[in-house]
Design goal:
Order of helices and strands: EEEHEHEHHHEEEHEHEE
Structural class: alpha/beta
Mean pLDDT: 97
CATH topology: Rossmann fold
Strand order of the largest sheet: 6-7-5-4-8-9-11-10
Number of strands: 11
Number of domains: 1
Shape: globular
Low-confidence stretches: none
Length: about 220
């Protein structure tokens, strides 16, 4: 499938799939959406605590990169697992301007995100480890492993099977008690699938250009 590099409204880049008319990030702003959904409404809930994170859709590495930057800033220990069935190429990653836009001093880390080995735990600093798993989301079998899930799959319009009750049941199982899942999406059918899987679900204001997003909690 053809992939193009485009600029989003906040000046940051993303990958666009013309055949699907779908992008890896919001066209309203890749970086601002990532911070709003995954940091402000996800990671910030665990301030001062070590966090195990599962990312559904490692993609360009943007969410992993901003999480690394936040971890260094706040001296927070992060064990990060990114799942991706179709990794982007190093050439594509090199065309992303995230390090320039977020923290140019960490540009070597952004490179490392894409260069480190798959299926191995890699220490990117003394407080941040990254494991990249080349895996279909349907094959995730973790149990009570993660505090936080960044659910960043392609949208329901193009891949509805990734937003099913079965997928969210696997996410529920993968979370520790009181674990949290955050996503940019807020379709009623998605909320219902989360509730059916056992989550308590809350609608929150969305990132710029989007009205709402969802945060789901595995309450015990």
């Amino acid at each position: 499938m053809k992939r193009e590099i485009i600029q989003t409204n906040d000046g940051s880049t993303t990958i666009h799939l013309p055949e699907w008319n779908e992008s890896y990030h919001s066209k309203h702003g890749a970086i601002q959406e990532a911070y709003h959904v995954f940091i402000k409404n996800g990671l910030s809930l665990f301030e001062g605590k070590p966090v195990a994170i599962l990312e559904i859709g490692f993609g360009t590495g943007l969410n992993a990169f901003i999480t690394f930057v936040e971890a260094q800033k706040n001296n927070q220990t992060i064990d990060y697992v990114g799942v991706e069935a179709y990794p982007v190429s190093l050439e594509e990653a090199n065309q992303m301007n995230y390090a320039i836009e977020i923290d140019e001093n960490q540009s070597a880390i952004f490179q490392q995100l894409h260069q480190v080995s798959w299926e191995e735990k890699n220490a990117l600093s003394n407080i941040f480890t990254l494991t990249k798993r080349k895996q279909f989301f349907q094959d995730i079998k973790d149990e009570a492993t993660f505090d936080l899930i960044y659910f960043d799959a392609f949208g329901f319009r193009v891949q509805p099977e990734l937003w099913s009750e079965a997928i969210f049941a696997a996410m529920f199982k993968a979370l520790k008690p009181n674990g949290v899942l955050v996503t940019y999406a807020c379709r009623t059918s998605i909320k219902n699938a989360m509730v059916s899987a056992g989550f308590s679900v809350k609608k929150l204001p969305g990132a710029p250009g989007k009205r709402e997003m969802l945060r789901a909690t595995k309450e015990v």
